[in-house]
Write a sequence for this structure.
């Protein structure tokens, strides 16, 4: 009798209450903020209140405006495949493959979209090329018949997005080029191949998988474009995402917004399936066992060298001009801004004082800072728990399946989930403790967190896989509890990745606009919303000055984060690897 009581007591002790609570939190978050909003959009697309119906689909098919927006989104994606690929590949080749002087200067400008992106980039291009832009004012003096509104419509969207998306090539395609074995190039030279033959028959086939992936990502970016069409597209070039926002703000048209969101989701799922299929082909090339570091190739033809420098300088000017002009102009007084002239006699710090000391200007910046910071930390903490549960659940399929729910935001556009929040939580719901998203600020933190969860999960899972599990086993064999082992052994191993993700996630959401445009409550605008509003054609000189300061502060914050993640962090890892190699010797 006593033995049976002892066994039942031991079983009750085996029930891990904290673990169960963590699982419940993980399940609740996935259901409340990922699954239900997505399912709501799907159901509302084929339900008109009385039952299953295709009325919303028919409305979209019969709406000239909706069909035009779908065509424009597809056109944007297709155009960017060519323009961004050409520009991005050219920039990488000019800075990493060919031996050109000032390549580091060129590279710094080409990397600017990493920190000068989103609404601040669109605002910067409008400041230079818009109706009242500096370059436009200069051109109208030379060409009086030039339309001040020339930078508008499809051309403006394609131009801005082409140079906004090249940073992906400067990261991933650049790494692929730098990873090429130089012995392959030397062998091709010894066989009598010229530089063009080596480039197109040796180099490009090796980096083809990376190039295909970047092409698909670029198409997806163009397809879901939001800020650029809204800010520089004008009335004549509307894409799906801004139109969804328009319909979402009209309760009677939300079924059309739901169908359009579903169209975007369908395209994204098809693109993800294509990427998965392409990766499954194993389209990778394994080269020699002892890699020789790539050496930059000298351009021997004088004509080709001049052409390369001309192209490099033109791309440098296009990439750097908006950012440089914004930084300089942020120190100009309203008199100089009104005349669109740069005069050192009009330099002042009044614009910065106006933003940093006036609550109406400072609050949106602080609000975005807090929201993006909380979302960055929350996403990492939540995924640390999920990955830990998944990795420890060796045979529990139910726990392992939780991971897939958190990949859903990769399959659907962020605005679909934002629209789902508006539709399902437009009134108090028990699932979210009788709260409503209408007039609530907390939903922005949730939305920001959900948007960055898939990438966070993927990177943290990779970090866990790289962790030496024998250390964990040794700790447990020495009598340490699971919690103590996690805090003292596992967490320090994945902490560098976790901190880097916190920083990058913070950068991602700092000037977020897409989801904010759907969910922000009036009077609680974030910095992305304010910049977009100030960049409108009806902006005042004060609004222009505020936008300039906002842009500079955001670029500065983004640059600091990028430096600590990629710059300082890379140097530390190099030192550590060097130390390890020295110890091995």
């Amino acid at each position: 009798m006593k033995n049976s009581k002892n066994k039942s007591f031991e079983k009750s002790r085996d029930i891990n209450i904290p673990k169960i609570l963590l699982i419940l939190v993980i399940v609740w978050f996935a259901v409340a903020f990922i699954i239900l909003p997505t399912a709501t959009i799907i159901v509302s697309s084929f339900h008109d209140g009385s039952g299953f119906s295709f009325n919303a689909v028919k409305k979209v098919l019969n709406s000239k405006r909706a069909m035009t927006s779908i065509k424009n989104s597809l056109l944007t994606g297709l155009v960017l495949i060519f323009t961004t690929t050409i520009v991005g590949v050219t920039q990488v080749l000019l800075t990493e493959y060919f031996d050109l002087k000032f390549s580091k200067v060129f590279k710094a400008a080409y990397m600017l979209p990493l920190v000068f992106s989103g609404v601040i980039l669109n605002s910067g291009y409008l400041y230079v090329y818009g109706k009242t832009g500096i370059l436009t004012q200069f051109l109208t003096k030379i060409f009086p018949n030039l339309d001040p509104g020339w930078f508008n419509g499809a051309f403006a969207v394609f131009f801005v997005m082409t140079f906004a998306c090249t940073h992906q090539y400067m990261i991933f395609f650049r790494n692929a080029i730098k990873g090429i074995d130089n012995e392959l190039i030397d062998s091709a030279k010894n066989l009598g191949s010229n530089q063009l033959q080596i480039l197109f028959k040796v180099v490009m086939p090796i980096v083809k998988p990376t190039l295909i992936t970047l092409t698909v990502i670029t198409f997806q970016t163009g397809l879901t474009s939001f800020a650029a069409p809204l800010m520089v597209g004008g009335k004549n070039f509307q894409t799906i995402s801004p139109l969804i926002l328009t319909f979402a703000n009209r309760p009677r048209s939300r079924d059309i917004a739901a169908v359009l969101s579903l169209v975007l989701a369908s395209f994204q799922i098809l693109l993800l399936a294509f990427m998965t299929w392409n990766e499954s082909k194993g389209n990778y090339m394994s080269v020699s066992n002892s890699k020789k570091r790539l050496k930059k190739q000298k351009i021997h033809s004088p004509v080709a060298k001049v052409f390369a420098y001309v192209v490099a300088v033109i791309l440098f000017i296009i990439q750097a001009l908006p950012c440089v002009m914004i930084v300089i102009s942020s120190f100009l007084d309203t008199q100089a801004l009104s005349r669109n002239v740069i005069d050192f006699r009009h330099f002042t710090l009044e614009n910065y004082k106006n933003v940093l000391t006036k609550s109406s200007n400072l609050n949106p910046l602080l609000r975005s800072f807090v929201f993006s910071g909380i979302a960055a930390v929350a996403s990492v903490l939540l995924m640390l728990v999920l990955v830990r549960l998944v990795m420890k659940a060796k045979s529990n399929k139910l726990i392992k399946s939780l991971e897939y729910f958190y990949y859903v935001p990769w399959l659907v556009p962020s605005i679909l989930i934002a629209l789902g929040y508006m539709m399902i939580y437009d009134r108090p719901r028990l699932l979210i403790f009788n709260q409503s998203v209408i007039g609530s600020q907390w939903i922005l933190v949730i939305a920001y967190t959900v948007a960055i969860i898939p990438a966070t999960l993927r990177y943290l899972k990779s970090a866990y896989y790289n962790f030496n599990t024998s250390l964990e086993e040794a700790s447990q064999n020495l009598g340490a509890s699971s919690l103590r082992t996690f805090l003292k052994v596992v967490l320090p191993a994945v902490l560098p990745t976790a901190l880097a993700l916190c920083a990058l996630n913070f950068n991602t959401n700092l000037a977020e606009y897409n989801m904010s445009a759907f969910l922000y409550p009036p009077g609680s605008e974030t910095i992305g919303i304010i910049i977009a509003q100030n960049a409108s054609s009806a902006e005042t000189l004060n609004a222009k000055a505020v936008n300039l300061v906002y842009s500079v502060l955001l670029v500065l914050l983004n640059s600091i984060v990028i430096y600590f993640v990629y710059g300082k962090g890379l140097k530390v890892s190099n030192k550590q690897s060097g130390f390890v190699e020295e110890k091995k010797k």
About this structure: The first helix runs from residue 2 to 14. Residues 54-329 form a domain with the MetI-like fold fold (CATH 1.10.3720.10). The chain has a mean pLDDT of 81.
